[in-house]
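Each field is set out underneath.
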Amino acid sequence: MEKETEKLMARGSKKKYTSKQKRRAEKIARGYKKRGVSKKEASHRAWATVNKESGGGKKSGSGRGKKESRSASRKGGRKGGRK
């Protein structure tokens, strides 16, 4: 029996994300870096936020037509803006 994992996309690959999702992640990561978070951690947090909002990669018909929730970004923006 062949392994199913060989057919799956590599973990961490951003191939299935739309250009809009990639732009959003970059912008979110820049915000974290500005607040002093390391580059690697900022990238992890940014992609976690994008995944939470959009439900993961959207290319090739997967999950088309579903609304995206911006609650994670809104919450983060409010938290980061407070002193």
